[in-house]
Design goal:
Blueprint: E1 14-15, E2 20-21, H1 35-45, E3 56-57, E4 63-71, E5 75-82, E6 87-91, E7 96-99, E8 103-110, E9 121-126, E10 133-138, H2 145-154, H3 161-180, E11 193-195, E12 200-202, H4 225-228, H5 235-251, H6 261-267, H7 278-288, H8 290-293, H9 297-315
InterPro entries: Kinase-like_dom_sf, Prot_kinase_dom, Ser-Thr/Tyr_kinase_cat_dom, Ser_Thr_protein_kinase
GO molecular function, one term: protein kinase activity
Protein name: 12080_t:CDS:1
């Protein structure tokens, strides 16, 4: 067995697979790194078997053309040019990283706490003004699942049936990798399935609580019924969400599109004063039910699916009546 002992610095910080010392070689790029992150990266660097798998600390000043893209539930998303670029190789003789300069990257700015793990992680940085942590990843040029499916609307040849299956296979493989090392994704929905030219990837895993009721409305169809009853989030809950991803991939529609989620949430509001009155409910329902009069078969089918789902939930152990009144909104 090869030793982790480094003869240069006399520490057990040497990775014999890539001839890299996390202490002395790592010192070339870790001058201002927070201690907790340094320890985390140090541990990771002792186990990788290829230089390309190294996760580095990179100063925020190394990013150019920073462009805001969107806000997620737990992070803001930016696109930028990375001057140095990700690692291509490590030269142990000259102690020098071979890089891919001006690589387009996507950074997830963790606003409150850095408790999410992401796929395709190249480096970690820190925003100087706020000390917020930045996770640097490859830019997914084809966007998330929703954006990816819009491309097929413009060009039907863009996404064949075989291509859909292959892309789902990529995402399923990523989920399997997460599960095999004993982790749970905990946040499966269409916004966390990202697409590059040749592959599909899963990002933002490790989050298994949803404390803001408004933040879960858009992803409610992906949340397993047992999670709504405060049962522990499990790998099987991930599978439930992935089933909805498959539905969306093949139908090009979000699950239960067209049903009045906002109205339902308002009816469930813990504060009685925020609930709609019966006249408002009638008006909204008749407006939504116009799909039947207009013979919009797809919209009508969405209603039938909702009614069937509610009926099944009422007959199962996950009945709405079983949810504590004070806990009907917050999900942990």
């Amino acid at each position: 067995m090869e030793s982790n002992f480094c003869e240069r610095c006399n520490n057990n910080s040497y990775n014999p697979h890539i001839k890299f010392c996390a202490k002395c070689d790592g010192a070339l790029w870790t001058s201002d790194i927070p201690l907790a992150l340094y320890k985390l990266l140090l541990q990771e660097q002792l186990s990788v078997e290829k230089p390309i798998d190294l996760t580095l600390w990179t100063p925020y000043k190394n990013f150019d053309s920073i462009e805001y893209m969107k806000s997620g539930r737990f992070a803001d998303v930016f696109k930028a040019e990375w001057k140095e670029g990700p690692i291509r190789n490590w030269d142990p003789t000259n102690r020098h990283f071979e890089r891919c300069p001006n690589h387009i990257i996507k950074a997830h700015l963790q606003c409150k706490r850095n408790d999410s793990m992401v796929s395709l992680l190249y480096a970690v940085s820190q925003k100087p003004q706020s000390n917020e942590i930045v996770l640097v990843m490859r830019y997914a040029e084809l966007g998330d699942l929703k954006t990816f499916l819009k491309l097929s609307e413009k060009d039907p040849k863009h996404l064949s049936h075989e291509e859909r299956i292959m892309r789902l296979g990529d995402a399923a493989s990523a989920l399997s990798d997460i599960h095999e090392i004993g982790l749970i994704h905990g946040n499966i929905h269409s916004g966390n399935i990202l697409f590059t030219k040749n592959n599909a990837h899963i990002c933002d895993f490790g989050r298994k609580s949803f404390n803001d009721s408004r933040s879960i409305r858009d992803i409610l169809p992906y949340i397993a019924p047992e999670v709504l009853q405060h049962k522990p989030y499990s790998k099987k809950a991930d599978i439930y969400g992935f089933g909805m991803i498959m539905w969306e991939m093949f139908t090009c529609e979000m699950p239960f599109k067209g049903v009045p989620h906002e109205l339902i949430w308002r009816c469930w509001d813990p504060d009685p004063d925020n609930r709609p009155n019966s006249s408002e409910i009638v008006e909204i329902l008749y407006e939504s039910a116009g799909c039947f009069i207009d013979e919009d078969e797809e919209e009508a089918q969405n209603w039938f699916q909702l009614f069937d789902s509610v009926s099944e939930i009422q007959q199962s152990s996950y009945g709405i009546s079983d949810i504590e009144k004070d806990d009907a909104i917050d999900i942990y």
